[in-house]
Amino acid sequence: QLGSAHEVQRFQRDVDETKDWIQEKDDALAADDCGHDLRSVQTLQRKHEGLERDLAALGDRIHQLDDTAGRLVNTHPESSETTITKQKEIIQEWTRLTTKAKARKEKLLDSYDLQRFLADYRDLTSWINSMMALVSSDELASDVTGAEALLERHLEHRT
Asked: If 141 and its partner were Cys, which of 4, 44, 64, 146 is the partner (CB 3.0–4.6 Å)?
């Protein structure tokens, strides 16, 4: 019977350790920074991918604890109420964490789209300004050869 009590205590300790791990990952997800340019967003996305790998390992741990809880409820009915309570707590915290991780991933994807758009906008604006400088000229041709040269220069920048 001492071994049985030890098994239940080990389960409770494992749940508490896992809850601490969940809290650690939750703290990592608490950052509101979504990046200020394309490079910083990509850095944050890579960091989030690393966190998702950690969450996959944590998910395996949660499933193991869930299986253990189910087994302990059957083999140790005297502590089933405590076991079920711990099981529900860990599942709730896990669900909350995964929801938060998905929301963070979506925010980073939206931020990436915004920064990509802004980078494209800046590039296009720069190109337009350089083209405007090239094609808007007060220079007028004084003869046919000069007019043909201006027209050729204009057509060169048109495409």
From this structure: 146
